[in-house]
Amino acid sequence: MLRFEDAVVRQGGFSLSADFAVGPGCVAVMGPSGAGKSTLLGALAGFAPLQAGQITWLGQRIDRLDPADRPLSMLFQDNNLLPHLSAFDNVALGISPALRLDAGQRKAVIAALEEVGIADLAARKPAQLSGGQAGRVALARVLLRRRPILALDEPFAALGPALKRAMLDLVASLARREGTTVLMVSHDPADALRICPETIVVAEGKAGGPHPTGALLASPPAALADYLG
Question: pTM of the predicted model, to two decimals?
């Protein structure tokens, strides 16, 4: 289980408290703009230090670990690809920051690119890729890292509907196959309903839950209802 236990994080005068636990599978993170959804993921990833409380994974504290040592990968909306590297090398960074790969590791990179359907684009640089292709490169890097927690900060928001659904389905497949715990920030109820049985609501300085997604969206709390319209 991933647990936020009375965790408090402050950034630029903004304060968010979080108290919840989630297990393997996809969990949406929803709430009004500026409520602290990205701050929540930042605290999990180690980019925003806690002022109180703790974050644990399988009963062990991870909030004191450096970001690189935490058991998670994170996907951002801009995909965080290095523009001077090929798709192959951007994926390979997931296992070797120095890009020194043995034969087995090179095969693993190709296998990850094949899994997301872009092995034929391995030599292209990010500027030569479409938005969807770049998103698949970033997802391939996550597949290669095989971390048990995946944090998604709206990485597919700029994609067209069909491609976004395909990417969401890839994430859901990864979660099922690997037993990954996925926290997915989303502003689109359809995305949450598609792959997330549960949803955490972030509003009014608090993150709590999770709640069954269908029931929550059918009768949302006031802050979420106002946001969703």
Answer: 0.88
